[in-house]
Specification:
The protein is α/β, with parallel strands linked by helices. The strands form four sheets. A six-stranded mixed β-sheet has the order 2-11-7-8-6-4, with helices on one face. It is elongated.
C-alpha cells in the first residue's frame, strides 16, 4: 500500500489532507489498541495495531493491571550476539533517546500514584539465526522478515524482543517505545498494564509513501524527518519521485548536464546527498525505490540535453523516441542508479519505477522528424510509446531490476507488457482487479482512498 504524496502549487492542501488522514488513523489505532488491552479505558498508542497483543486487565493503572517503572539512568537495551550490526546498534542508540524525551531525576520518583510492581532495567534484543544480524543492504528487500515477539513482564525481570532479522528488531523497538509512557504529574516513566505479550508481523510486505521532490523541492533534512516519521509508523518503502517536468534536481556523473534542469541552483541533490538519504533509510528499515518518469513528465531534461526533446522550446515532452541519444541518456541515468547489476548503484533496491503516466503524444504528431521516423517504423504514436517503454524496461531488467509503471501503461498496452512488470494503480481502485487478473503484480495507491 503506497501513499502517493505529490506536492506542486497545491502542495499545502495535499500535505494538510495527509495530516488529517494521519490524525484520524491515529485515533482509530488508539481505540483499537484499547480493545486489545481488554479495557476501554486503556489508551496505548500502538501504531499500527500488532497482529496479536495481550496485557493485564483489572485494577490499578487507570484501566487494568499494574506498571513497571523505567529510569533513564538505569535502563539499558542489550543486543547479545548481534553487537556487530551497525543497523541495530544505531537503532539502540536512537531509541535510548526516543524512550526518554523528558528530563528526570536519576532516582525513580517513588511518589507516583500508579500501581507499580517493579523497575524494568533491561530490554534484551535477540536476533536469530545469526545471519539475520547482517547489515548487507541486499537483505533489505521485498519480503524481508519483519516479524518480532515482544514480552514485558510485571516482576522487573528482563523484557525480551526476539526477531529473525535486524529489521524485525527495529519494528519491535518501535512497539516497545510506544508502550513507554511519561507521567507528567509524577515525572516518571512506566509501561502500564503489564505483563505485555505481543506477536507481530506485517500485513503488507510493501508499505510505502511517495514524495515528489521535483515539483516541490525538499532539503535532505526534511526528507530525513519524513523517513523518521515513516519508521514510527512502520512504513518500509520510500518511493522517491525524483524528477519531473518542473525539475531535474539530481546530480549525475553519467549525464552531468541533466541537473541544469533543476528548479534553481540551490534546489539540487548531490550524489553524496542521495547516498546519504538511501543509507539513512536503510538504517530505519526503509527501502528506497526511485522513479525516473519517462517518456512524459521529462521536460526538465531539455535544459541540459535539448537534442533529446522533440522540438524545443516549443515541444519538450514526451522525450524524442526517434533519437538514439534519448535512449543513451536514459541508459546512462539507469546505469548510474543501478550500478549496472543487482544490489549495486545509488539505489540498490530490486525495484525501479519508470513512470509512464500521462503521456500526451501530440508533440510527436506535430514534429516533422518524429512523424517521419514513426512512418519509417510503421508506428503510430501509441506504437512509439510502447516502443520506448519496452526499451526502457529492457534496460532496467538488464541492470538487475524489476520495472514498476503507473497504471496508464497497463491501460494502454495491457498484456503486451512483460509480465515481470509491476503495475502501480493510482487512479481507479477497480483497476487493481483487472491488473491482477491479467497476471501482473500490483501496488495500490488509488486516489479514491487518498
Amino acid at each position: 500500500v503506497t501513499q502517493r504524496r505529490e506536492m506542486n502549487t497545491t502542495g499545502t492542501a495535499c500535505a494538510s489532507l495527509w495530516l488529517l488522514l494521519s490524525a484520524a488513523a491515529a485515533a482509530a489505532a488508539a481505540a483499537a489498541a484499547a480493545a486489545v488491552a481488554g479495557d476501554a479505558q486503556v489508551v496505548h498508542y500502538l501504531w499500527p495495531l500488532p497482529q496479536q497483543a495481550s496485557s493485564a486487565t483489572g485494577g490499578g493503572g487507570g484501566g487494568g493491571g499494574g506498571a513497571v517503572l523505567l529510569s533513564p539512568a538505569r535502563f539499558v537495551i542489550a543486543t547479545p550476539g548481534c553487537d556487530s550490526s551497525r543497523v541495530l546498534s544505531a537503532a539502540v542508540a536512537r531509541y535510548a533517546a526516543l524512550l526518554f524525551p523528558h528530563d528526570e531525576e536519576s532516582a525513580i520518583n517513588t511518589t507516583t500514584t500508579i500501581a507499580t510492581t517493579a523497575e524494568l532495567l533491561r530490554l534484551v534484543v535477540t536476533v536469530a539465526p545469526a545471519a539475520g544480524c547482517s547489515d548487507d543492504i541486499a537483505l533489505l528487500r521485498e519480503g524481508t522478515d519483519e516479524s518480532y515477539e515482544l514480552a514485558v513482564p510485571n516482576d522487573g525481570s528482563d523484557a525480551t524482543l526476539d526477531a529473525r532479522t535486524v529489521y524485525g528488531a527495529l519494528r519491535g523497538l518501535e512497539t516497545f517505545a510506544q508502550l513507554v509512557e511519561y507521567d507528567f504529574d509524577t515525572a516518571a516513566y512506566h509501561v502500564a498494564h503489564v505483563p505485555w505479550r505481543i506477536e507481530d508481523w506485517p500485513r503488507f510486505t510493501h508499505r510505502g509513501l511517495l514524495l515528489d521532490t521535483a515539483r516541490h523541492f525538499q532539503p535532505v533534512g526534511v526528507i530525513k524527518a519524513l523517513l523518521d516519521s515513516m519508521m514510527y509508523a512502520k512504513f518500509n518503502v520510500f518511493h522517491w519521485h525524483a524528477v519531473d517536468t518542473q525539475a531535474f534536481p539530481f546530480e549525475s556523473s553519467a549525464e552531468p548536464k541533466l541537473w541544469e534542469g533543476a528548479w534553481s541552483p540551490p534546489a539540487r541533490y548531490t550524489l553524496a546527498d542521495i547516498r546519504n538519504v538511501v543509507e539513512y533509510a536503510q538504517y530505519r528499515g526503509i527501502r528506497v525505490i526511485p522513479e525516473l518518469d519517462v517518456p512524459g513528465h521529462a521536460g526538465s531534461w531539455c535544459t541540459g540535453y535539448p537534442e533529446i526533446c522533440p522540438d524545443p522550446p516549443k515541444c519538450l515532452q514526451p522525450l524524442d523516441p526517434s533519437k538514439p541519444e534519448t535512449y543513451s541518456v536514459i541508459a546512462g541515468v539507469l546505469g548510474e542508479w543501478t550500478g549496472l547489476t543487482t544490489g549495486r548503484g545509488l539505489f540498490p533496491d530490486s525495484y525501479l519505477h519508470v513512470g509512464g503516466d500521462e503521456v500526451d503524444t501530440l508533440c510527436w504528431d506535430s514534429t516533422v522528424h518524429v512523424v517521419q521516423w514513426m512512418e519509417s517504423m510503421g508506428f503510430d504514436s501509441g506504437d512509439a510509446y510502447l516502443y520506448m517503454q519496452n526499451l526502457t524496461q529492457q534496460t532496467v531488467r538488464r541492470y538487475g531490476r524489476v520495472p514498476v509503471v503507473w497504471e496508464d501503461v497497463f491501460d494502454l498496452f495491457g498484456s503486451a507488457l512483460d509480465h515481470n512488470t509491476v503495475v502501480q494503480v493510482w487512479r481507479l481502485f477497480s483497476r487493481l482487479k483487472l491488473v491482477v487478473e491479467a497476471g501482473y503484480r500490483a501496488l495500490l495507491s488509488d486516489m479514491e482512498h487518498w
